[in-house]
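help with this record:
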Amino acid sequence: MTEGKRTLSHADREMAFRVATKSLPTWFGTEIAQGMTDADLKAALEQVLGIWGGSCGPGRLDVIHQGSGLKIWAGWHVINHVTERPIFAGKQTLAMARLLYGIEDPDNPQLSLL
């Protein structure tokens, strides 16, 4: 870790994910309630994350997102997406969306343990 960079906590990672995907429940609320296959969820997240976007400001977490690869970067510093690894990418992003938004997979016959 370089000078001035603060390690992300679990709460920071969750906040970054919610910032990057905040329109998912609004745009796909019906689909979320019915359950989404991995393919459907991937397509929805690609749309929500868009080609490229982000959010930052004084005293706020810097968040960058990209639909291609379902990538989300975050940090308490200015993110360099070229040299830094995303905190979520691909299947990690799908799993986090299912966890945070309670999205069931109709293709998965396993009963929820919750």
